[in-house]
Every structure is written in C-alpha cells, then in structure tokens.
Amino acid sequence: MKIVGILLAAGHSRRFLHGNKLLHPLPSGPSIAQLAAQNLLAALPQSLAVVRPETPKLQALLRETGLDILICEPDQQEMADSLAAAVRQVMFRSTPPDAIVIALADMPFIRPDTMTTLAQHLASGVPIVAPTYQGLRGHPVGFSKRFYAELATLQGDEGARSVLRQHVEAIKLVECDDPGILQDLDTWEDLQRL
Length: 194
Hints:
Strand content: 15-25%
Radius of gyration: 15 Å
Oligomer: single chain
C-alpha cells in the first residue's frame, strides 16, 4: 500500500513574533520545520510539504531535507486551503496513494514510530486514524483515499476538523507513548519552555 505524508508548512505564524517560527532552531540543532520533516520522512519517505511562495528559505530547507515541495497560491494560505491543495496534488497523480498522513510543521517532536504505527493501521484498512497520548487526541491524522474528495474541497483555517466531525464512526484512535503528538510550538514562549 502506498501512503504519502503531507507536511503543512504554509501557516503565517502570526502568534510567533520573532520571524518565521518554522526556521527557528531548536535546542537540539535543526529548525522546527526541519525536525518535523526528518521525522515524517523517517516514517513515510514519499512525503511533500506545502509552503507559501514568499518563503524561499523554508522551501530550500525542506527540499534539502528530502520533501517534495508544493507552493500554495495566495488564496490557499489558510490551513484548510493548503491542505486541500496538497490533497488535490496527490489525488490527481497518475497513481494516487492509498492513504495520506497529515502532519504539521510546527509539531517537531512526533516520533517516527508513531507515524509508522498510523501508516500500519491505514494499510490494514482503517479509514481514519489518529494518535492519543494519555487519552488526548493529537496529530498527525491519517486518511484513506475514500476521504480525498472531501479533503480536497476544504476551505478556511479549520483544517480537517469538519471531515473528522462528519465521520466520527470511521476514526480509530491509537494510544501512543508519544507526548510529541500534543506539543505544537505556536509562540516564542512555547519555544523558550523547551
């Protein structure tokens, strides 16, 4: 089964007041987006990142890390818009993947084995899969191709939440020993707490 990772990296980082947060280095060395990309690629080597056109440094960094790059148009820069653009890109390939795993570039601490576990559940026929840590649902979320059409028409900044709400019965929650599924870096203060 072919499963592709999608790294959403087209956000505006409006709450992070010190430049593009995705380029900011972590204490361990790589930038936030680079570590998120490395972890995604370790689990799903065929992955792509969605970025804004005015972020050439981020594009270059993610390309060097090994991701394919999709540049979203100016009218596709809310979370759902960039996600929909990525889904359309993969669903119209000559051989579309059987499933996708959607990860966020500001969540760099999700372990590769967590993403591998999600991919295994998708490969076994689970329609939608999401990880939990101590009972709390986190990211990334995996979708089988049955949901591509709905994901491809999303708009606004809600991401895939509306699809998840409409298909609660299709979601399998998988408990993981991975606090990284809940840890996003939205503000300068989030980064300082590391």
